Structures are given as C-alpha cells and as structure tokens.
Request: fold
Amino acid sequence: MLIAITRQVSSSINRCELTYHAKEPIDLAKAIAQHEAYEACLRGLGPRVVSLAAEPDLPDAVFVEDAAIVVDEVAVIPVMGAASRRPETESLARALSVYRQLKFMRAPATLDGGDVMRIGRRIFVGSSSRTNAEGIAQLREALAPFDYEVSAVDVRQCLHLKSGCSYVGANSILVNREFVDATGLAGFELIDVPASEPGAANVLLIEDVIDNAKEGVIPDSAEDAVKDVLIVPSAFPQTIVLLEARGFNVKAIDVSEFQKAEGGVTCKSVIFNGGTL
Ligand code: CIR
Reply:
C-alpha cells in the first residue's frame, strides 16, 4: 500500500521562507482546514496517511517533500538548501526509518526534495537556488547501487524543479518552460501550462487508485474509481480544463494558504510504497 507522510501545519507558518513570492498574510485556521482536506483527499485515493506532529518552531515543516527523497530501495536525507529548514529532517528521518534504510547527504551538498522528480528509474534534479551541483552528485552516488539515472535540469525564476514541472502519467510532463530548461526532458510529451497560470505546473499524481483501493481503501466517489488521479490546485481552472480535455482525471483542491508560502500540492506529502507495513 502507498504511505503518505504529512505533517501538521506549524503555528509559525507566517514566518516561512519566501524567495520569489511577496509576503502575504497566511490565515492559520484556513491553512489547517485546507491541510486536513488535503490529507482526506489523499486517504480517499488510497494512501495511508501518516501525519507527523507539528513543529511549532519550524515554519515550513508542513512541506515535508523537501526533507527526504524516498525511492523503493532507500530514503535519502538531504542537507536542505535553506538553513532555517535543516532541523526538519530529524523527525522525518525517524518516521522514514520504519520503512527504509536511510542515507544522509553531507555539506557542502544542498538539496531540497522539491527539486527531485522521479519517473520510473529516471530521476530529474533541479539545479536551483536550493540544490547545488554537490547535492546532485551525492544523490546520484546514493542511488547508484539501485540503477537510477540521475540528471540535472536547470531551473530559473521559481523555487524548485517541481514548481516548474510535474510528471502527470502517460509519459507526459506538465511544464512551464519559462521556469525549467525543457531540453533535459526530451522523450516525454510536454504539456505547457496556460500562459495565464504560470504557477500551475505543480500537480500531484496518485497512481493506481484502483489497486490502492483493492488493498482495503474504498475511493470516495465513483469519479475517483479510476486508475490514476491528478491533484491540482483549484486556483488554476484553465489548467484543470486543459488536463481534463486531454483525458486526465483531475481532483481540484484549495491550497491557497500554502501557495502564499510558495508551496503547492506535491510539497505537503512524501508518498512511497510501504509494502505491507
Ligand atoms: C520554502 O521556501 O522552503 C517554503 N516556504 C516552501 C517550500 C515548498 N516546497 C515545495 O514546493 N516542494
């Protein structure tokens, strides 16, 4: 079964890191409600949600995706790009140690999980303000025994690789080519985000919803009883229309308070195969 590790929203989220976004007040109560709805959405699609306690002194700790890279064989714990976020890895590593052998990256490497897009045995890593060349090299080294091909992709004007592109299934990547150097993504069908929604390339693919459901979880509704689902922020209606017109099954979700913190839908969970655990 799929496991989705999440973490409760920190009461200090208004002190989050911001790189490309201007500061806007985040409504904490609304953020908590949106995060509960996000967790419920994941549960409805099959994954077992393991929700970690909030870290009140770590404003960005809800964005667990950045603090670990989990593949079937191992979990890699990075040195995160923002110094304020580095303590987030401790409790996440403890939670992951139940499911995976851990490997730890070392300075001067920096890397955020939001820069890592895995498509089968291929792993694309954003070269960004958070992830440096040494971080990419150490990830490659950590995964070398397991036959993954790790390639760097240049990222500009946005925080992470997955702020600018996401794998949506069917050999296709939703992308904003202003943010991501798409030459590194050759071999995939590229679906451009609408020009009116430049921030819409971060969507979350939940694969094999039917199989997840067979393992004991009944999908929420008939609409969810499909093979794969894309979770897409409701702030991007044109993107939703575009994806649906191409035959993708979309579930829209409101993450407005997390978008103010420069987050999206992938960053609030770490999803991996938990076997029978
Ligand atoms: C940060 O700047 O690190 C947070 N405020 C947002 C992190 C979002 N993470 C992600 O998209 N993977």
Summary: The chain has a mean pLDDT of 94. The domain at 2-12+27-273 is CATH 3.75.10.10 (L-arginine/glycine Amidinotransferase; Chain A).
